[in-house]
Amino acid sequence: MAEVRKVVLVGGSRIPFQRAYTGYRDKGNLDLMAAAIGGLVERFDLKGQAVGEVMGGAVLNHVRDFNLAREAALNAGLSPATPATSIQMACGTSLQAALLLAGKIATGEIDSAIAAGSDSVSDSPVVVTDRLQHRLIDLSRARTIRERFRALKGFSFAELKPVAPSTAEPRTGLSMGEHCELMAKEWAIARADQDEWALRSHRLAAEAEASGLLDDLIVPFSGVLRDNNVRAETSMAKLNDMKPVFDRRSGQGTLTAGNSTPLTDGAAAVLLASEAWARARGLPIVATLRAGQVAGNDFAHGDGLLMAPTLAVSRLLDRLGLGFADFDLFELHEAFAAQVLCTLKAFADPAYSRAHLGRAEPLGEIEETLINPMGSSLAYGHPFAATGARILALAGQQIAAGRQRALISVCTAGGMGVAAVLEAA
């Protein structure tokens, strides 16, 4: 059996993240993803070159996005000899893509790969009602006047009302924010603590932005040079003024627009390779992608929609024989401040650890200064499929600057979680 090879992170690239309906309001998933991959192509001199595979996807897909990863790879300037696979795992899409590609590199199937994700809320698909859809299909198949009249029989103008994309979970009918409100109540996460976490994220992201630490990771696109969601000027007073948006009636809602991620357009990509492939081309090696783990929970029956990362992290650390003390960096996706705080409480809770993680002892607490030291999704924004690649690239940059080992986790819709470990090369 062939030896399992080390998988290295060469680098990452993303376009500036923009609030929905602002900088990229006329751009789609393909435009965004091609630009992010194009940043890697230009930075690492891959124009016209073939890489082993490109894998990526989007959560909000149009029919025209059916071969998104392949078209983005070609538009970015890679050789037509580069195969591509489109995938989707909600908010974990690009991190899961990286893990799948890493497995192919580790086993020798390919030597290099690009994982990517993009999402455009501004270009969300708006569809017609099911009844009108079937009526139009019948009309297109009609061959006689009688058949055409039969297809139109019973038509109502109400059928013309467009159907906007739904954010509700099919199994519960609740949105992600409504589910997170339930989690916040279960874990007794105070509104002030959520606002403080959001403020922290914006402050740290603004510091990273001002210091130039993000410059190598961001490529201009469509005249946009920087993220437009980071709020250096925000304060607890401003955050406190915001009203709950997912529980407006009970008087106990705590999730606001300020402590939740905004709807965001953007794309991100990372270049992975075998160590030999990278060194042969004189490319940098910023970190080693050691392992990953995915998990799912029974969120429809009370597990907590966004709590699956606790399962993924626990199983991953068990496999590797590691604990929190072995890490000096934790990059935790911030879908909501409450979600992060619930997760941190769960990691340290003995009863939860026994019942849900099968652990005799909890993983424990994490030193706050080690968590998202350059800010995270609450500040930068969250283009669903792109977030994993953004976090992976940012963690890699911090490891290249001196950190030794990073734990990454991303929660997703559908009660799933993705985790990964990144180490110094």
Provide the descriptors you would attach to this structure in a database record.
2 domains, single chain, globular, alpha/beta, ten-stranded mixed β-sheet, Peroxisomal Thiolase, Chain A, domain 1, 10 strands, 425 residues
First-to-last CA distance: 25 Å
Q: Count the strands?
A: 10
CATH architecture field of the largest domain: 3-Layer(aba) Sandwich
What would the average pLDDT be, to the nearest integer?
A: 96
Give, in order, the helices and strands: EEHEHEHEHHHHHEHEHEHHHHEE
* Estimated share of beta-strand residues: 15-25%
Classify the helix fraction into a percent range: 25-40%
Radius of gyration: 22 Å
What is the helix tally? 14
The total domain count is: 2
* Biggest sheet features: 10 strands, mixed
What would the CATH topology of the largest domain be? Peroxisomal Thiolase, Chain A, domain 1
User: Which structural category fits the helices and strands?
Assistant: alpha/beta
CATH superfamily of the largest domain: Thiolase/Chalcone synthase
Q: Runs with pLDDT <50, length 5+?
A: none
Look at the structure and give the CATH class of the largest domain. Alpha Beta
Shape: globular
Structure notes:
The chain has 425 residues and is an alpha/beta fold. It has two domains: 143 residues, 3-Layer(aba) Sandwich (Peroxisomal Thiolase, Chain A, domain 1), CATH 3.40.47; 171 residues, 3-Layer(aba) Sandwich (Peroxisomal Thiolase, Chain A, domain 1), CATH 3.40.47. The chain is 35% helix and 16% strand. It contains 14 helices and ten strands. Strands 1, 2, 3, 4, 5, 6, 7, 8, 9 and 10 form a ten-stranded mixed sheet that branches. Helix 3 packs across helix 14 and helix 6 packs across helix 11. The longest helix is centred in the middle third of the chain and has 21 residues. The radius of gyration is 22 Å and the shape is globular. The two termini are 25 Å apart. The model has no long low-confidence stretch (mean pLDDT 96).
